[in-house]
Amino acid sequence: ILEKLKNKEMGNINLGVSTTIGKNYFLPKFQEFSRQYSDFKIKIINRTTIDTIKLVEEDKLDLGIIGAATNEINLELIKIGEIHDILVASNNYLENLNVSYIDDILNKGSFMFLENPNTTREHIDNYFSSQNLTINPDIEASNMDFLVECAKIDLGITSVIKEFSYNDLENKTLIEIPLKVQIPPRYIGIIYKNS
Asked: CA of 101: how far to CAs of 97, 105, 108, in Å?
């Protein structure tokens, strides 16, 4: 047992991850890890990014996997991937809006976003603010998957992470709305306390 601990073949980790990153990024990688390191016990806590950061700061989690726009957290951050937020809607919804310019879509569209407080929502709100736009969503939810389903049934425009939405974009279930200025990228990162 001591040799396995020394070689990092066994141990315990408390890990926090949000639903969207957990489902689309973490779980596919965790499946292989758990096969390779079957003696490692990982306790997974599914919380928002804000809650995950707080739990790592309070030493209640060893690691967190989060989507971060900047390094402005008081924790160590290892960037492990880049993600891009985009705006999407169904083709029917966009055709029924009957507009041809992006400004008209943004002014006349019905928006659906994650509720506050949420790091993704904050990132999207900051983007709109930088473009001198104020968007008041008609639907707010705690889960991005719910908003995606709302968009698929023609209820409005939502933001998604492009890297996690390739199937819907490829199948044209959702259409990316072209923006004059792209939403700045964010990072998937692992956070931990330096101590």
From this structure: 11, 6, 11
